[in-house]
Amino acid sequence: MGQITVDLPDELRKQIDEFGCRIDMSVILRRAVEQELPRLRLTEDIQSEDMTRLRDEKANAYESQHYAEGEIDGTSWALKASYEDLAAIAKLTDNPDAFIASHNAGDLTSLLLSAMEDLSLSSDVIPANQHVPDAFAAGFIWAVWLVFEKL
């Protein structure tokens, strides 16, 4: 059998020494390791492809939720907006799918907020100092564009 060295705090070592030879450290350590190994294997399994897949699904669900919220808010805003304001936001793009796909993280939100600030509308739609995910901005722009196109 192989041997290993175990470091113990001085206080714990003193307590063990009180019992002398009645404590079989090999048996105790073997049992502890045997109990710990399944937990360690589970931890490794948690880092597997399944966890990667679940993390991706969680991110997609988050994105989908914010996109849907953006669509709802965008439609609501578009139906109440003046034609001029509606056109200004809708004309950010002629093709929302390509426009949304071509922008990096943060770009859509910046473009939407900038356009709305130019129209003095940002506080009506997005409260000041609120983080706006790009997925929300994408859904908002898409919905506004869709209402505008139906006119």
Characteristics:
8 helices, mainly alpha, 0% strand, 151 residues, 2 domains
How would you describe the overall organization of this protein?
- With 151 residues, the chain is mainly alpha-helical.
- It has two domains: 37 residues, no CATH class; 85 residues, no CATH class.
- Helix content is 73%, strand content 0%.
- The longest helix has 32 residues.
- The model has no long low-confidence stretch (mean pLDDT 79).
Radius of gyration: 30 Å
Shape: rod-shaped
Distance between the termini: 82 Å
The ordered H/E elements are: HHHHHHHH
Strand percentage:
under 5%
- Domain tally: 2
Identify low-pLDDT runs.
none
> Mind describing the biggest β-sheet?
none
Query: Class by helix and strand content?
Result: mainly alpha
Mean pLDDT: 79
How many strand segments? 0
Helix content: over 70%
Q: Helical region count?
A: 8
Oligomer: single chain
How would you summarize this macromolecular structure in one to three sentences?
With 151 residues, the chain is an all-alpha fold.
Q: Topology of this structure?
A:
Layout lengths: L9 H10 L5 H22 L2 H32 L2 H8 L5 H6 L5 H12 L3 H4 L8 H16 L2
Helix pairs in contact: 3-8, 4-8, 6-8
